[in-house]
Design goal:
Structural class: alpha/beta
Shape: globular
Keywords: Pyridoxal phosphate
Helix content: 40-55%
CATH superfamily of the largest domain: Type I PLP-dependent aspartate aminotransferase-like (Major domain)
Pfam families: Aminotran_5 (PF00266)
Number of domains: 2
Radius of gyration: 21 Å
CATH class of the largest domain: Alpha Beta
Number of helices: 16
Distance between the termini: 37 Å
Domain Aminotransferase class V: 25-235
InterPro entries: Aminotrans_V_dom, PyrdxlP-dep_Trfase, PyrdxlP-dep_Trfase_major, PyrdxlP-dep_Trfase_small
Protein name: Nitrogen fixation protein NifS
Largest sheet: 7 strands, mixed
Order of helices and strands: HEHHEHEHEHEHEHEEHHHHHEEHEEHEH
CATH topology of the largest domain: Aspartate Aminotransferase, domain 2
Amino acid sequence: MALDLDFVRSQFPAFSSPVLSSHAFFENAGGSYPCAQVVNRLTRFYTDRKVQPYAPYPGAQAGGAEMDEARTRLAAMMGVKREEVSFGPSTSANTYVLAQAVRQWLRGTDGAIVVTNQDHEANSGVWRRLADEGIEVREWALDPATGSLDPAALSKLLADGKVRLVCFPHCSNVIAEVNDVAAISALAAAAGARTVVDGVSYAPHGFPDIPALGCDVYLFSAYKTFGPHQGIMVLREAFGFELPGQAHFFNHGTLYKRHTPAGPDHAQVAACAGMADYIDALAAHHGVSGDPAARNRGVHDLMRAQEAAVIQPLLDYLSARNDLRLIGPRDAALRAPTVAVELAGAAEPVSEELGRRGIACWAGDFYAVRPLQALGIDLDKGVLRMSAVHYTSPDDVARLITALDAVL
């Protein structure tokens, strides 16, 4: 069954907003529209539950129950234990805290870590700084022509058995090629290494099936997956308790508190249950049945099929031009629908002109400084990035191509 785009777009208040609906929205990689279920839960929390949760009176009990619901339902969708789902202020903050735990874990050992230069800086810089502690940091370098990561190159980095941790993206926020997380995680595990996956740029295109991916940590952002501004970290139990705790000592026995030193944003955690509401609404509407994990997998596949069909005409159009460089695969099935191009001149004036023509997108380095440098792209020029999700329509893409044709 194809995704019912009219039903999908009816779930997002932004499409009826007089401020937002005038533009075709291609800034989704910077933050997606929130679904109505999240907006309604957030409003209800601030209206009826904005007190210290779990206390012995109705508003507090209701607030705590909704926070618990968010963790329980998201965990069930992703196929993990509820205790393995942690909320934090952002993915950058969650990754930073995790790196401090790894700093202690590897201090005084001969263990090494592997990072890539395909990552957003949030999943690169914090790991590279562990070299200040004397921890060896090895770089898994991308192919400067294609932007791809070659697993054979990783195998060489793992060969001596010293690597304890491999950190890599599910897909880059500018290259967008979908990395084979399951194969990479298996390769690392066979060499005795744990894996940390930055899923920020992939999760908007389908929530992960964590057991199928086989990684030890998976991080993504709720505000890019139709929710509020929270970072979500799936930390598998064995690794989470092996790492030194980073929170109050008396919370170290609870996994979802063990590595979240900041107090939770109660309202936004509770509102994350709206993300599960939305997936369930899509599943019900499209006849996808089964347990929460099965429904999630079915909706994931619907989203990915819709995105590939909608974004392929844009990739074809850009591939046919000889005045720009399309970054990443030309086949929509091999990538997320996050499309970055290098232009002859600076990219920001082009995004500004597109904005005047009804297209919402942006330009710059998008904190992907290392990948752009590795690809030989002038950071002063930056790239033009146009990013879609499953609610992007064929008409949106047609409008974008028309505008690009006029501006370029």
